[in-house]
Structure formats: C-alpha cells, structure tokens
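This part of the workshop introduces the protein records we will be handling. A record pairs a protein's sequence with a compact description of its fold. Comparing a sequence with its tokens is the quickest way to learn the format. The record below serves as our worked example for the rest of this section:
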Amino acid sequence: MSSPLKVESDPEELGFDPARLARIDDHFARYVDDGRLAGWHVVVARDGKVVHSSTAGRRDAEADLPVTDDTRWRLYSMTKPITSVAALMLWERGAFELTDPISRWLPEFAAPRVYVKGSAGKPLTEPATEPIRVWHLLTHTAGLTYGFHHAHPIDAMYRAAGFEWSAPRDRDLAGMVETWAGLPLVFQPGSEWNYSHATDVLGRLVEVVSGKSLDTFLAEEILEPLGMTSTGFVVDDAERLAQLYVQNPATGGFLTAEAAGMGALAREVLEPTWLGGGGGLVSTAADYHRFTRMLLGRGEVDGVRLLGSRTVDYMGRNHLPGGLDLEQVGRPLFAEMPFNGVGFGLGVAVVTDPVRYRTPTSVGEMSWGGAASTAFWVDPVERITAMFFTQLVPSSAHPIRTQLRGLVYQALVD
C-alpha cells in the first residue's frame, strides 16, 4: 500500500501562499456540496515536495464511504503516459527506432486502408501512402480512432465492432489489435492528430518487443521500481475502489455507472479480459505522484532512473506535423477545454504557447487527463506537479482542469 500523501514542506518556503492554496478546497468543495461530484482528491507539489493535499466527499456516495488517501481511482487515459514511458524505455535500449513501421512486429498492420468517403456501412478506402510507425502511435497521428467520438463514419465502425465505452469480452489485447487493424484509418498516417486506441496498440508493441505481457513489463520496469504498489490492471481490494459516476444531463448531478447503463465500464477493472495500455490502469494519488515526480526529475526519482534526462526532454516537445497545435491539426477533441497553444509530445500534451492556451502555465508543461475527469500536469519551469482525482464521466462535464490550473498558479507568489 502506498504511503498517504501528507504536506511535506511549508508552502511558503516553496513560494505558495497558504491562504491562496486554501481557495482550491473552497472552490471544489462546492462541487460536492451542490451534487456535481461525489468526491475528489487534489495534490499540488513543488520540487517533488507536497505543499497541498486534500480530499472531499465520498468515494462511494451510496455506501457513504469517504475519499481517503489510499482510494483507488480508474486512471483511464492517464494510463497512456505510463505505457508511453514503457515504449521509450525499450527505444532507449535499441529495441526499435521511432520511425520503424509497426508491421515489423504487428503484421496485421502490413497493409492499412484509409477512409476516403462514404458511410460506415459502405466506406470507400484507399491504401495508406506510408506505414504506421512507432512515432505515430506515440503521437496519436496513426489514423486510429475511438468509438465514443461520434465524429466520423469510422468511429461508427468501431462502435459496431463493440468499442465505445467498453470492449468485447471475448478477446485479449492481441485480439483487440487485430480487430482495429482490420478497420480503415481515419486519415493517412502522420497527416493529422486524432485521439485514439493508438496507445493500446503501443502496449501490444511493448509486449511483442519485450517478450513480456504488458502488466508484467509495467510492474517489473516501472511500477515496482517507483514504488507504485497500488497501481495495476486488476482491482483485488474493491472496498478501496471509487465508484464510477456518469453525469446526469437532466440535473447536472451524477448517476452511478450502473444506473446510467454503463455498468460494464465500471466493472472492467474487477475482471479485465485485456490489458489496455491506453486506459486500463487503476491507481492512487500517492502512486501517481511518484510517476509525476519521475517526469519532473527528467526520468529519475529518489535514485531510481527509468529514462535518460534527454529522453524526457524529447518526450515533452511538440511532435505534431509542422509544429502546429492540437486545435490546428487535431480532430474534434473529447475534452472540456480548447487546445489552442497546446501541441502533443510522445504520450503527453505539451504547452507551446500559454497565452494562446489562456492559462498561466509554462512553455513545456506536460499533461493529460482521463475520461472520468482525472487530470495531471508537470510544469518543468516552475517545478510544479498537480493532480486531480474524481470519477465522473465524461471529462467534459465540468471545467475542472482549467479551474484547477488557475487556482494553483494564483497561489504561487514567489
């Protein structure tokens, strides 16, 4: 079990005004008081030292169980940076080049087809003009998609194949990847950005290249070395697991996933049939704090080094075509905020222009969030890491991420 997250340093010594930090709790307490969220946990740190850690509400409102330091949260897409680090660790060892076609290890992608026009039932496709490369998986420029986007005929084909908020239970990760490889791409590889199952495919690549299952590789190479002992694909202590909620559009409140007809999504972490490197992990705030500290430490924390410092620097640069941002080159995004001034690196979003982003953060900030409204960021300039955990789908329900950034930076006064 991870150690509870306690304030480790006087906030004032690290440049924060304690009274201003308290505004974070005051603000988000109202989300619980008026029924928008069941509960939450927020953590702010500087130089790796926790300056603010607070909880509110219930991890399970129906059972009246409070949020605690060791509550386990479904990470969903906050899994992606962890899987991306796994791939980069293999790259550092010379296992592949970022420009290598993935068909070298995943032959099902040897001849991808690309959507041209038509309906989901009768699409017209053409051959891909170049192969899907490892680089494309890390940057979501492979042309893959998600069924929950509801923005393109290929999204509908994913839903018809059983992929929307959950996945077919009759196959493992290898079977999932074979299914996606048989569906058309949304665009030519490398030409655009589209949030997708690319990191799940990357997880399968890690398996084939390493010769280990994804859960074993992550445990041996990342989770155990970092002391992330409460992170994994399977929950065997369900009493610590936060309930999954879905926004009730009629009231602005929340329903349990079961009541909203999304019970399969809530139960996937109890008996998973596949290892989703794009969204399958469950973790605690204390565990994920270790991961963010590693990123802030340019690959190292407390003497444990996962990546070279230059690799993390490279991970945190904008790799999108033409140096454009997500608003310019991305398909419609599943998020509660615009992405003007935000590019995409190797597994993380990267701030390129805080002014266009309308957020007082720093150039080079790395971040991402999850479908259940979780979020994190790492600011290498101000040396800040911040995390927010709750369990409400969709993440676009409330402007939590923009509000949290504003509240954290207004408290910084050095």
About this structure: The radius of gyration is 20 Å. The chain has a mean pLDDT of 95. Residues 97-210 form one domain. The longest helix spans residues 18-33.
